[in-house]
Design goal:
This protein is α+β, with helices and mostly antiparallel strands and 169 residues long. The protein has one domain: 2-Layer Sandwich (archaeoglobus fulgidus dsm 4304 fold). Helix content is 25%, strand content 28%. The chain contains 4 helices and 9 strands. The strands form 2 sheets. Strands 3-2-1-4-7-9-8 form a 7-stranded mixed β-sheet, with helices on both faces. The chain has a two-stranded antiparallel ribbon with strand order 5-6. A hairpin with a 4-residue loop joins strand 5 and strand 6. The radius of gyration is 15 Å and the shape is globular. The chain starts with a strand and ends in a 7-residue tail after the last helix.
């Protein structure tokens, strides 16, 4: 099972959305999960994971299905420096037991071009980074996901779910 996660904040609260799907080419979710967390940490520049990681772990505590991969909205590694992004911290928090794939819509400073994935007719790439799985394999999977546009349909569902645009089914 694959889980795509996204988080939306309102002041001190967060809505964490998880979209579970069975394969990289799935068109529809297996299940959608929403978790609300009150009293999230304040944003600290350069320490974003301190705010978002506890939220993601709260969602993961509610997921019963065994996970083969987790896809986060963001980076596993930041630029060329090898510094951990949110996905790298999540990988460590899960004792490196579940591979993490980061998919970001904006380039982080010094993001290597090898991380770029172009989908649909978009001239703008997505940026893929990984922990526990080969980068090229992850890029193939993200490229194979359903959706004619830049952002795969099921990743967009996670974004819409955490924003309250769609409801879990």
């Amino acid at each position: 099972m694959i889980l795509a996660i996204d988080v939306q904040y309102t002041e001190n609260n967060a809505c964490i959305a998880g979209v579970l799907f069975e394969s990289w080419t799935s068109q529809t979710p297996f299940k959608m999960q929403v978790t609300l967390v009150d009293g999230v940490a304040d944003y600290e520049p350069g320490q974003f994971y301190k705010r978002e990681l506890p939220c993601i772990l709260a969602l993961l505590n509610e997921i019963e299905e065994p996970l083969d991969y987790i896809v986060v909205d963001g980076y596993v590694w930041l630029g060329c420096t090898g510094h951990k992004g949110l996905g790298g911290h999540l990988f460590d928090a899960l004792n490196k037991a579940t591979p993490i794939i980061g998919v970001a819509k904006k380039a982080f400073k010094d993001t290597p071009e090898v991380c770029a994935v172009y989908r649909g007719k978009s001239a703008k790439p997505l940026y893929v980074t990984t922990a526990g799985v080969d980068l090229e394999k992850a890029k193939e999977w993200i490229s194979s996901m359903k959706g004619a546009h830049r952002e795969p349909v099921l990743l967009k569902k996670a974004d819409q779910l955490c924003r309250g645009i769609i409801l879990p089914s």
